[in-house]
Amino acid sequence: MREFDYRRASDVPGALALLGAEPEARYLGGGTNLVDLMKSGVERPALLVDVRELPLDRIEATPEGGLRIGATVTNSDLAAHPEVRRRYPALTQAVLAGASGQLRNMATVGGNLLQRTRCAYFTDLARPCNKRVPGSGCAAVAGEHRNHAILGASTHCVAVHPSDMGVALAAFDAVVEYATADGPGEVPLAEFHLPVGDTPHRETALPPGALITGLTLPPAPVAAVSRYRKVRERASYAFAIGSVAAALDVRDGTVHDVRLALGAVASRPWRARAAERALHGGPATAEAFAAAADAELAAAEPLPGNGYKVTLIRNLVVAVLTELAEESRQTEEAAR
User: What does R_g of the chain's alpha carbons equal in angstroms?
Assistant: First the structure.
């Protein structure tokens, strides 16, 4: 590991100034991803700017009826917050599925969004990786890619984004807020993670030196009936090989509103817009759910070793939406 300096920021302007003065600096939140990458030599910062004590650790209701979540809120506090559990249960479920209790106590919301892929070639300095060394190639395309992307990939990179939390946030139209030396800004989560294209090393739309300060969840009544389901290769904590965040509002057997996002299928949390369009206003049946999943997965381009993900995601979408439809039906009957 390269030797580095360490500074603790006491306010946002101070954090921005420290990072701006050192081109090879990195912000440090919980460090659950960054420190591992430093140990492997993938990340070699000259300075760590600790932002854990910044006043960004609150979850508050917005005037519009949504929630604002500070960047240094821990994953444990996010999952346990009563308003998150009540209004966006899939978000709580996604966070709890993401890691052990010890890691959730350390990991922050801002850091979760910025975590980097767990592709083995990315962390192996002896192998080519366009995300780590632009122009060196993608060893996963012809190598081990069982857990890699089936949507939105390119010949330059087939790695997937590892976040569980991000999948639920994508389903609920979260907006990421950030600060720069020139002032604050925001970007919808749907645009936060950049498409792979031929520049997989450019991962987010954040301006250089920007600090994530929080995110906003807009009001979404449909999110109250929502679920996150994750498939992994072992029962203990592991990264997903496929996941679904879904919310469904069914009235008299018809889909009134639906939100759907997929995880472990692309370089970013994947909002399933085609599936949502296919479902809206139609019947809430298993056949309709399967057709909607097929509409979304029509764009899939699996590699020889990960074609199973197409079937896995299709079945996962149908199962989760069927469960939510039954929950909506029972709620509707109880209200009569």
Answer: 20
Nearest of 309, 228, 313 to residue 275 by alpha carbon: 313
Residue 218 to residue 262: CA distance in whole angstroms: 20
Q: 180 forms bridges with which residues in the sheet?
A: 183
Q: What is the pTM of this model?
A: 0.96
- In the sheet where 47-50 sits, what is the strand order? 5-8, 47-50, 25-28
DSSP 3-state of 244: strand
Question: To which residue do tokens 């990786």 refer?
Answer: 129
Per residue in 268-299, pLDDT (tens digit) is 999 999 999 999 999 999 999 999 999 999 99
Q: Exposure pattern of 30-42 as b/e (b: 16+ CB <10 Å)?
A: bbbbbeebbeeeb
Q: First CA to last CA across the chain, in angstroms?
A: 64
pLDDT digits (tens, 9 = 90+) for 165-205: 999 999 999 999 999 999 999 999 999 999 999 999 999 99
The closest alpha carbon to 30, from 62, 67, 76, 61, belongs to: 76
Burial of 281 (0-12, 13-18, 19+ CB in 10 A): exposed
**Is residue 331 very low, low, confident or very high in pLDDT (cuts 50, 70, 90)?**
confident
Strands (E), the chain: 5-8, 25-28, 47-50, 59-61, 67-70, 175-180, 183-188, 211-217, 226-231, 242-251, 254-263, 270-271
